[in-house]
Amino acid sequence: MEDLLKLKDKNIVVMGVANERSIAWGVAKSLYQAGANVIFTYRKERSLSKLTKILNDNQLEAKFIVQCDVNNDESIVDAFKQIGEAAGTIHGVVHSVAFAHAEDLKGDFIDTSREGYAFAQDTSAYSLIKVAREARPLMTEGGSIIAMSYLGAERVLPGYNVMGVAKAALESAVRYLAHDLGKDNIRVNAISAGAIRTLAAKGVPSFNEILNKIGETAPLQRNVTAEEVGDMTLALISHLSRGVTGETVYVDAGYNIMG
Ligand code: NAD
C-alpha cells in the first residue's frame, strides 16, 4: 500500500488540530498510517497541549510543531519559514481551519456585519491563499494542498450563514490556486465534508437536527467520521490522485446528491 500512495517519509503539514475530534486529527491518523511525517500547526496554547497529549496517547511523534495564526500574515510567514528550516522540502498541506463570529451564525444572514463578513472570509478563505503562497517555495518536488469545505458553500443551510459564503470563496480559491500552481506540479483540491461533531460545529445552531436529517436522508443512511475524511484527504494527497486538481470532493455519505 505504501508503494501505491508514495507518502512514506513525505513531509505533510496539517493545520487545525484543536482536539481528538478535529477533522485535522482524523487526517493526521491517516497520514501516519501511510508512513508520512506529520508537521502540525496550531493557534492556541490550549490546542498545543491537547495535541501533545493525543500524540503521546497514540504513541505518535510529530516531525515538527509550530504556532500559526492564519489571521496574521507574519505568523504564516514565520511558521512556514520554521517549517522549511526543520523539514526542508514539504509535499503537502492540509488546511483544516475556519472561524466566524458566533453572532453571525445566529439570526438572519441579511444581518451579517461588515466586520463579521470580512473576519469569516479572512480566517476561512483568504488564509488558504496566503498559506499556499508561503508553502509553494518549500514544495520543490510538487505536492498537494487540501482545504476543508461544506455543503453550505452551494446550498442555503439555515444557520451556516456567513460561513457558507466563506466556503464558497474557499472552493473558488481552490480552483484559482490549482490553476496557478499546476505548473509547479502542485495540486489543490477541497473536500466537502459531511457534518461531524467537532468544536467548530458547536458554533452552528441546530447542529443536532442537521446530523439527524443527514442520517435519515443520505444514501448511506448515516453520518461520516473524521477518519473517513482523513482517508479521502490521504487519497487526495497521494500518488493515486495525481491527475486530480481544482476539485471539490464530497465525503458526506452521498447527502449532497439528494433533492
Ligand atoms: P475544529 O474546531 O476541530 O477545527 C477548527 C480549527 O480551526 C481549530 O483547530 C482552530 O484552532 C482553527 N482555527 C480557527 N481560527 C484560526 C486561526 N486564526 N489561525 C489558526 N487556526 C485557526 O473543527 P473541525 O470541524 O475539525 O473544522 C476543520 C475544518 O473542517 C474547518 O474548515 C471546517 O469548516 C471544516 N468542516 C467541518 C465540518 C463539521 O461538520 N465539523 C463539515 C465540513 C467542513
From TrEMBL:
Keywords: Fatty acid biosynthesis, Fatty acid metabolism, Lipid biosynthesis, Lipid metabolism, NAD, Oxidoreductase. GO terms for biological process: fatty acid biosynthetic process. NAD(+) binds at G16, S22, I23, D69, V70, V97, K167, I196, R197, T198, L199, A200. Substrate binds at A100. One of its GO terms (molecular function) is enoyl-[acyl-carrier-protein] reductase (NADH) activity. Its EC number is 1.3.1.9. The active site is at Y150, Y160. It catalyses: a 2,3-saturated acyl-[ACP] + NAD(+) = a (2E)-enoyl-[ACP] + NADH + H(+). Pathway: Lipid metabolism. The keyword Transcription regulation does not apply. The keyword Oxidoreductase applies. It is an enzyme of class 1 (oxidoreductase). Belongs to the short-chain dehydrogenases/reductases (SDR) family. FabI subfamily. This is Enoyl-[acyl-carrier-protein] reductase [NADH]. It comes from Cytobacillus depressus.
